[in-house]
Amino acid sequence: MPFRPFVLSLAAACALSAAPCAPARAVESGVTVHKLGPLKETVPEATAVRLGGDTQQTRFVIDLTRKVDIATFTLADPYRVVVDLPQVTFKLPRHSGEHGRGLIKAFRYGLIMQGGSRIVLDVTGPVRVNKAFALAASDGQPARLVLDLAATDRESFLRNIEVTARPRRHEAPIRSDVSRADNDPRPLIVVDPGHGGIDSGTKGLDGQDEKDVVLAVGLKLRQALLATGKYRVAMTRSDDTFIPLQERVRFARRHKAALFISIHCDSLPRREGVGEGATVYTLSEHASDAEAAKLAEKENKSDVIAGVDLSAQPNDVANILIDLAQRETKTFSVQFARTLARDFKPVVPLHIKPVKSAGFVVLKAPDVPSVLVELGYMTTRSDLRRLVSPEWRTKAADAIVQAANDFFARRLVGASVGAK
């Protein structure tokens, strides 16, 4: 029977440029769509970024290979300004966005869906978007995206958000390669490489992005699982695309997954010392230790980083029903986590506490056994050396396959005994 659930400190940017900076139109906080001409077939590139100004007025400028349409909106708690634009290849200098100036603390950028990119500015407080426009290349100057921000009060900021319609949320549809044959009894395993697109995850010691490392491992895992012939496999993402956390959960539930494996890498600030080894997490509303709680909080901010607010929490009645459904699922999740830690041990160095629990949003499907695997620390040299090694990634994938084999073998035995 089939298995079922479970930057840059520079002078004010455009002001020092020889090209004119007349705005296309003034913009208030909230959403404003700026139509700036037809798109060409080639994907434009972002080649440089500049910040100028102070804590009252700040200008943000990105150089582009051609002019594009943009849309802006603002979000509170934390305060952010979001710029949506067509798909752009970001070729900005390394470390761009890690530091800000004036009203901008930092910024992030990347693919939000096929055909669409996003820039998210983390701002110091409530701001007003005074100007948002793009300029075509002219007089030897590249095309540019220009954003002028001004400080405002919270009341005005929130009022402008309320009275202005929000744009349709960008959510990349997950393209499923799941077999749709109703008579296929093989369990479906969903592999979930964390982060992606605008959300790069943590940074390695040499500048590696977590999203790239976990995608490489995820692709190897899919290949290894399919090679057994025992499972159907689907991935929440198989390229550099941002997928909201709740959509990852909905995807697993929609396809009646028998197991959900989310793949991540960990990090520690230098002041907190060195962490080492892999950890397997299951869901808990109360984290098993302070480190697990901090990690869950960091991972759950992925949607906020991308400028998307997390969905509202269910009401009290729904919480009770979900809790009842989750009890059996949690038991299976813990079983797989312990099995995986055991099968990891010969090939993957383990954290001193290899199995933990925390409140990860991505593990909250009430009817899909789910684990989140932190493969190692991007900020620890020995772990990073393994994480970027193709040979080690293959060994890690094989260990996860072995854990899946052991996990489903026990469930098959249990199902057979129960049927007699």
Describe the 3D structure.
The chain has 420 residues and is an alpha/beta fold. The chain folds into two domains: 150 residues, Immunoglobulin-like, CATH 2.60.40; 232 residues, Zn-dependent exopeptidases (Aminopeptidase). The chain contains eight helices and 16 strands. The chain has a six-stranded mixed β-sheet with strand order 12-11-13-16-14-15, sandwiched between helices. Strands 1-4-5-8-7 form a five-stranded antiparallel β-sheet, with no helix packed on it. Strand 11, helix 2 and strand 12 form a beta-alpha-beta unit. Helix 6 packs across helix 8.
Keywords:
Immunoglobulin-like, 420 residues, 8 helices, alpha/beta, disordered N terminus, disordered C terminus, 6-stranded mixed beta sheet, 2 domains, elongated, 29% helix, 5-stranded antiparallel beta sheet, Aminopeptidase
Structural topology:
Layout: E1 32-34, E2 45-53, E3 57-64, E4 70-75, E5 80-86, E6 89-90, E7 104-113, E8 116-123, E9 127-135, E10 143-151, H1 154-163, E11 188-193, H2 210-228, E12 232-235, H3 245-254, E13 259-266, E14 278-283, H4 290-300, H5 302-305, H6 316-344, E15 350-358, E16 370-377, H7 381-387, H8 390-419
Parallel strand pairs: 2-6, 11-12, 11-13, 13-16, 14-15
Antiparallel strand pairs: 1-4, 2-3, 3-10, 4-5, 5-8, 7-8, 9-10, 14-16
